[in-house]
Amino acid sequence: MGKWGRIACVFLLGFAMAGNALAAEKKVELVFWHALGGGNIAFIDRMVADFNFTHPQIEVKAEYKGSYRDTLNAAILAHRQKKSPHMVHIFEVGTQMALDSGIFTPFAQGLDASALRDLEDYIQPVANYYTINGQFYSVPWNSSNPVLYYNKDIFRKAGLDPDNPPKTYGEVMKAAEQIVNSKAAVKGITWPLHSWFVEQWLSMQGALLANNENGRAGRATETFLNSPAMIRIATWWKELYDKGLYAYSGRPEDWDGANKLFVSGQTAMLITSTSDVAFHQAAAFENGYALGTGPLPVPDGMERNGVVVGGASIWMTGGRTSEEMEATRTFLLWLTNTENGVRWHKGTGYFPVRTSSCDVVKNQGWFEKNPAYTAAFEQLLSTRVNRASQGALLGPFPEIRTIVTDAIQQIISGKNVETALREADKRADKALMDYNRSVR
Question: Where along the sequence do coiled-coil regions lie (predicted)?
Answer without folding.
Answer: none
